[in-house]
Amino acid sequence: GGLTNHHPGNVLFRKLVRSKQEEYLRATKRDKAGVAREIVDTIRHLDPPGRFLKKDPSNPGQWVEIGNRKAREK
After folding, report:
1. Contact 34, 27 (CB under 8 A)
2. Fewest C-beta atoms under 10 Å: which of 1, 9, 21, 43?
3. What is the DSSP pairing of strand 53-55 with strand 63-65?
4. For 26, how many CA atoms within 13 A lie in the half-sphere containing its CB?
5. Eight-state DSSP code of residue 7
6. Over residues 4-12, mean pLDDT
7. Which of 7, 64, 10, 5 is nearest to 39 (CA)?
8. 33 — phi, psi (to 5°)?
9. Alpha-carbon distance 18 to 67, whole Å?
């Protein structure tokens, strides 16, 4: 919730996820991973590249990259 929901990158991410939702729901388990990979790759190849972040538990106020695997799980 909160302010991060309105960040332009998060708005774009949710729009992209919605655009792939039907394809994802129809996909086999193996193909679902491919749809998720497509979404992450699309975000990563933006200019400037999109990132997938989480709050750094050991450093309040800082954010850290979560990597592609965790991003696909998101």
Report:
1. yes
2. 1
3. antiparallel
4. 4
5. S
6. 92
7. 10
8. -60, -35
9. 22
Give DSSP secondary structure letters for 27-62.
Answer: S-HHHHHHHHHHHHHHHHTSSSPP--EEE-TTSTT-
Residue 74: per-residue pLDDT: 80
pLDDT digit string (tens) for 36-72? 999 999 999 999 999 999 999 999 999 999 999 999 9
Residue pair 13/50 in contact (Cβ under 8 Å)? The answer is yes
More confident residue, 39 or 5: 39
Six-digit token string for 30: 């193996």
Q: What is the pLDDT of residues 12-25, one digit of tens each?
A: 999 999 999 999 99
**Before 8, cis peptide (omega within 30)?**
no
* Residue from 55, 48, 73 nearest 64 by CA: 55
